[in-house]
Amino acid sequence: QWDEPRVCSRRYLKVDFADIGWNEWIISPKSFDAYYCAGACEFPMPKIVRPSNHATIQSIVRAVGIVPGIPEPCCVPDKMNSLGVLFLDENRNVVLKVYPNMSVETCACR
Amino acid sequence: SHNAPAWSAPPAAADDLRGDRDSQRPPGEAASTLGPGAQDMVAVHMHRLYEKYSRRGARPGGGNTVRSFRARLDVVDQKTVYFFNLTSMQDSEMILTATFHFYSEPPRWPRARELLCKPRTKNASCRLLPPGLPAHQHLLFRSLSQNTATQGLLRGAMTLASPLRGLWQTKDISPIVKGARRDGELLLSVQLDSGEKDLEAPRPSSHAPYVLVYANDLAISEPNSVAVTLQRYDPFPAGDPEPRAAPNSSVDPRVRRAAQASGPLQDNELPGLDERPARLPHTQHYHKHELWPSPFRALKPRPGRRDRRKKGQDLFMASSQVLDFDEKTMQKARRK
Lengths: 110, 336
Known about the structure:
The structure holds two protein chains of two kinds.
Chain A: E1 9-11, E2 14-16, E3 26-28, E4 31-33, E5 36-38, H1 53-64, E6 75-88, E7 94-109
Chain B: E1 2-3, H1 4-7, H2 11-18, H3 29-32, H4 41-53, E2 65-70, E3 72-76, E4 79-85, E5 93-104, H5 109-116, H6 124-127, E6 136-144, E7 153-161, E8 167-172, H7 174-182, E9 187-193, E10 210-217, H8 225-230, H9 282-290, H10 327-335
Antiparallel strand pairs in B: 1-8, 2-10, 3-4, 4-9, 5-8, 5-10, 6-7, 6-9
């Protein structure tokens, strides 16, 4: 974690379905790389965090201190990927579903 | 139609395809329920679809869902009938395509021998062959709602050619399944009619027919869709004591408060506990209204911490530090 960048960026997270108790009915995958977003969205924000115009304005307002209580923008997933999951339904039939927005590809300040 | 060897995949090959990451953990319970060695065709077929559509951007049949339905064998009027329970389909799933997969066995030995017998043979067994064996098998599709005693509404009929060797055949039954669903009859029956009087010999599970339904789940892009279908138990088991909750606490999360001072007050010290209306913690209030409706048990909301807005204010002590006098004494003190 000490080597992780301080600015808003994607961090590695592997989710194992056994850890959250879903392995009883999920056939595949056993686990997947979900990743997560964390880091600062402080003014001035670098290009890599791809801030929206609103996030840029909000960070300036916070930095100037005009309005008290304004937080810095949040580091959140920007582009995400889907994940195919093979599982058993309530009647023990095999089902395949492709769920959207299951893993993070890029993060951004919003 | 497709040849049987194209669909069969030894378990070892399937395991290799899963990659090293999945092999780090022992197979879960779900994998073991696919069948002995995962050799039944439903499991093999679905796994191949999973591997195919796990690639980014790939969509199974233009949708996002494939459901498989195994057959339940029954005998009705001395006829072999396969039943498929399609009730697990969600209302949000729009059917795109439905296919029926059936393993056609080669003709029984009299027909096989007929093919092997040459004309004008002197072999006695060849001369005893019965004529006119059926070269096709007929499938009758019916649908009915559950808990009905009728045979069901005839939805369609198909013919399967009898192959020379074992062969998996696929038939498009989209109109049949769509019509059955439209009418609310989600129990599909398939009667095999080969023209033979005797019942069909029981098939091994690996040769049992099955139905695949390709659908587009319109609700899959909704927030929390993954939990609606995959979260089935409360991750916080029942019986675990909630933190900071008294054993006899009521359902109402607000803390009861009561003024302890009975007489008039002459100073700015509050007599007893804080008399301001108890404010619901922000997070608790959020959980009360924002949980998604689900047929399964949802996450237990955890009580939020008390929100203290005024900084620097001393925590009010539960017991008052002010002396309490009767009204007569207070009146005398005021006069003085």
